[in-house]
């Protein structure tokens, strides 16, 4: 049982403890446990006895779990808590063993998914990269070392220098879809980095990261999970955090890559014209533009963006302090303030995963990209149009299509999107 100073409990708290114990075990059982007769229990509960002795409460507490005790004594209520208050709770937990056991039990019960996600996150520092480069250059030829470092540097940039099992798995899948050769080299570089650097910092986390993805083979046997629009709507409606809700909404309705949505800036979203200007072009990808439905643009403007702005204002000072305390992480405050999703990726994923479990359907976020493509194609949309909307056509191929085979404007592309793309917030409009 958690250690409490029972003498500090007031009458109302004592009464709630006794009622909780009686509710769980019955009056007769609690009377026996507390060494009082049944009539006395009745009088306690009815308020006929104005004091409940410490020894009675101590016996009653022994019949309850930590969560039940918390509910009885403190109640599960929401209050405004600033970072200073939160820190004081942590300090108390460090010094008070009884409170620490109680506090940790509550954390794992109510925030277990978040704690698990956070514990699976590794932030890559400049020191890590320098150590890796030194190791590689000492053990490989110059050309091989240059190649490994190049693939790793590009991967870390696209992963925002944060490694988590889920993100690594999806990132390699994304690369495999676009260019299997690059995916193989990148996967090898990441595994080597985890083995040589992360393992020396955190061996347990390194194992989880290392095992989370495989080096792509010539052919892949993975088949995307079959998803329905109704299931995705249920998941969306069960996401409580507005940041995660908006993130899931855009992923589902655009079919964009997870990394592309995570890296969006606010100025890339034109809510008036319902356009997302990604303007990303690489050796293998061209994702230059996407769109939003009217209901989605309205929801983002009226619900999400005010929430996001308030979040940035409330936590900017804390992020600045974090940046000052961790200069090796190169945290860019101004860049953070412009992000459409200025939240930790692992927290967004944890919120979405909780909603998935409530609905009973868990899958990779990258599967939303496959869902978008199959949803559009089943409605008769040309795969060529789908590839353009999802930025799947490489630059050279895109230019050939545009110049010789496919004369289509952004306005026409948006019309395809408006008519056929999946919607989580509104019904499909009628077209003549």
Automatic annotation (TrEMBL):
<keyword id="KW-0238">DNA-binding</keyword>
<keyword id="KW-0233">DNA recombination</keyword>
<dbReference type="InterPro" id="IPR013762">
    <property type="entry name" value="Integrase-like_cat_sf"/>
</dbReference>
<dbReference type="InterPro" id="IPR050090">
    <property type="entry name" value="Tyrosine_recombinase_XerCD"/>
</dbReference>
<dbReference type="GO" id="GO:0003677">
    <property type="term" value="F:DNA binding"/>
</dbReference>
<feature type="domain" description="Tyr recombinase">
    <location>
        <begin position="222"/>
        <end position="418"/>
    </location>
</feature>
<dbReference type="InterPro" id="IPR002104">
    <property type="entry name" value="Integrase_catalytic"/>
</dbReference>
<dbReference type="InterPro" id="IPR011010">
    <property type="entry name" value="DNA_brk_join_enz"/>
</dbReference>
<protein>
    <recommendedName>
        <fullName>Tyr recombinase domain-containing protein</fullName>
    </recommendedName>
</protein>
<keyword id="KW-0229">DNA integration</keyword>
<dbReference type="Pfam" id="PF00589">
    <property type="entry name" value="Phage_integrase"/>
</dbReference>
<dbReference type="GO" id="GO:0006310">
    <property type="term" value="P:DNA recombination"/>
</dbReference>
<dbReference type="GO" id="GO:0015074">
    <property type="term" value="P:DNA integration"/>
</dbReference>
């Amino acid at each position: 049982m958690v250690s409490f100073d029972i003498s500090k409990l007031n009458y109302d708290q004592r009464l709630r403890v006794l009622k909780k114990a009686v509710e769980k075990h019955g009056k007769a059982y609690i009377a026996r446990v507390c060494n009082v007769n049944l009539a006395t229990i009745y009088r306690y509960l009815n308020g006929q006895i104005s004091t409940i002795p410490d020894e009675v409460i101590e016996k009653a507490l022994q019949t309850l779990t930590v969560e039940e005790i918390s509910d009885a004594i403190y109640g599960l209520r929401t209050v405004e808590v600033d970072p200073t208050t939160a820190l004081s709770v942590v300090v108390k937990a460090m010094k008070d063993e009884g409170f620490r056991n109680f506090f940790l039990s509550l954390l794992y019960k109510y925030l277990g998914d978040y704690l698990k996600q956070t514990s699976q996150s590794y932030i890559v520092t400049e020191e890590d990269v320098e150590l890796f480069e030194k190791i590689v250059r000492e053990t490989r030829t110059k050309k091989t070392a240059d190649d490994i470092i190049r693939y790793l540097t590009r991967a870390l940039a696209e992963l925002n220098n944060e490694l988590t099992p889920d993100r690594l798995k999806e990132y390699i899948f994304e690369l495999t879809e676009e260019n299997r050769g690059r995916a193989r080299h990148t996967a090898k570089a990441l595994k080597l980095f985890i083995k040589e650097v992360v393992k020396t910092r955190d061996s347990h986390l390194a194992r989880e990261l290392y095992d989370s993805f495989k080096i792509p083979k010539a052919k892949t046997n993975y088949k995307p999970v079959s998803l329905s629009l109704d299931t995705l709507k249920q998941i969306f409606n069960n996401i409580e955090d507005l940041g995660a809700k908006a993130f899931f909404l855009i992923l589902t309705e655009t079919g964009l890559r997870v990394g592309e949505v995570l890296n969006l800036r606010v100025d890339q979203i034109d809510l008036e014209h319902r356009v997302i200007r990604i303007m990303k072009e690489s050796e293998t990808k061209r994702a230059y533009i996407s769109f939003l439905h009217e209901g989605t643009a309205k929801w983002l403007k009226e619900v999400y963006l005010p929430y996001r702005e308030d979040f940035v204002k409330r936590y900017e000072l804390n992020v600045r302090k974090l940046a000052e305390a961790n200069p090796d992480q190169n945290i860019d405050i101004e860049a953070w303030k412009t992000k459409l999703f200025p939240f930790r990726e692992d927290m967004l994923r944890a919120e979405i995963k909780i909603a998935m479990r409530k609905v009973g359907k868990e899958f990779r976020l990258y599967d939303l990209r496959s869902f978008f493509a199959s949803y559009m194609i089943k409605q008769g949309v040309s795969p060529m149009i789908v590839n353009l909307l999802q930025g799947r056509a490489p630059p050279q191929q895109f230019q050939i299509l545009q110049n010789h085979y496919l004369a289509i404007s952004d306005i026409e592309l948006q019309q395809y999107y408006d008519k056929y793309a999946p919607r989580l917030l509104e019904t499909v409009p009628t077209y003549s």
